[in-house]
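User: Predict the structure for this protein chain, please.
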Amino acid sequence: MGIAALALSAALPSYASGVIDNVNGIAIDPQGKVVHFGALLIDDEGKVEKLIAGRYQEPEYKRPPKPKKGQPWPQPPKGLAFRLDAGGKTMIPGLIDAHGHVMAFGLSFITLDLSGTTSLADAQAKIRAYAQENPGRKWIIGTGWNQEAWGLGRFPTAAELDAAVGDIPVWLSRIDGHAGWANSAAIRAAGITSATKSPAGGRIEITGGKPAGVFVDQAMSLIEKVVPAPAPKDRDIALEKAQRALLATGITGIADMGTSIDDWQAFRRSADRGALRVRIMAYAAGLENMVTIAGPEPTPWLYDDRLRLGGVKLVLDGALGSRGAWLKADYADAPGQRGLPMISDTQLRNIMSRASMDNFQIAVHAIGDAANSEVLDAIQELSETYKGDRRWRIEHAQIVSPADLPRFGQFGVVASMQPVHEASDWRMATTRLGEARLAGGYAWKAMLDNRVPLAFGSDVPVESPNPFAGIAVAMSREDGKGEPVGGWMPQQRVSFEAALDGFTRQAAYAGFAEKRFGSLVPGQRADFVLIDRDISTARAADIRGTQVMETWIGGKRVYMKGQ
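Assistant: Here is the predicted structure, written as structure tokens:
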């Protein structure tokens, strides 16, 4: 069935320009089923021409009969531009991250990164060292801190940051991007005092009647308005570093969630130089960026399907780690707190309607059960007006009321989820909500059972972009240490086939790109990865350690391990 669907053939078309032979090929057919092949033919446009069931055989060329008088001799078929013997390596479609933040990932390489710190003291030491190694900076900017990973049991304070660096402003985003940690100099620079009120959709942490140093969700803007923006040159450097890191993990495409005009211009500059390799499906950060970048309608696909602005990203609530996720009942570990919606129900519907009028796709960040219910309600209402293939997206969909799960399928809503979040969050989620409220938590299998399009990603740089870790978690519900043994809520595990489908075909479908790339279906761009093991037969724990040997995009090698 799969062989017929993917038109496997041993014949060489006259316009083929290359062949990757002797592979343990794994592809995804249009129904999401795994098929196997032995060689891949690439045409002269860098697209998949054929998948061959076995080894490639050079076709025999027979000279045609002499043409009639006055008729030209038929031209022989073109030869191959290249032929690569892959030595039996496993080939899979190029992997697609359905939810990431490209520029933030790149900037993490050139700013202070606290993602590997294991305690408050460890973070303070790293901050202090960074300041000493980078003298003369007017601000220290960074990201990646996580009080849960430190075992702190509370947010850090401005005084604790002052102990590391107190003479210049310091602003550090939490790993999920939904809270920021400021020192006293930064708080003063922003003009924030004990009289400053928390903005709608945000929270200033207060201790002793004064700002404690952490600003949650919309309150982050109080500091960020005075933080120097990255220069265009810094963005260009960051984008190149992000691309190199993504290609090394086998990522050939990514949905960039929250693209600003500055990000878009960096993408365009890179593409104009011929340096944009990773395919970027961009979702504008709000209406203003949407209109500024794309104008009256989504952009066309640009640079041989490398770049498109097709939708808008909205944020309804915060994250569990900072207790900003909007819940229907109080947090189990913080009575009286339920998180907050960042925008009202009327604002949400107005923004979704405005974008839908011009055929932009809608992607809404919703983590808590109240937030997910609110977005589904809005989609149900707007679906009466905006017909056709809308592919409404809910980003994260981490905590969903069981009664709401069928509604995703009812309205064709794409569940854009990140398996690695479950591995990082399972202990915290249990603390925040309690077991009884997690029946619809990180519910991948339940989404599939309700016929919901399930696209997988990483939320990079919140998590590592490594898709093999994501596949492993999707299959096992275990973290990198193999905990909990047997998986957390193991009934929500999915098969290898579904996990790979989520990182390929479904991730492309989520961005209206499934006819262009994602599955190695003939006619699609020849984006693929050569890896060091057969992940179709490996245990989930072994998939996590998969090494990418080569990454190809559009029929061209763009990464080779060790080079």
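The chain is about 30% helix and 25% strand.
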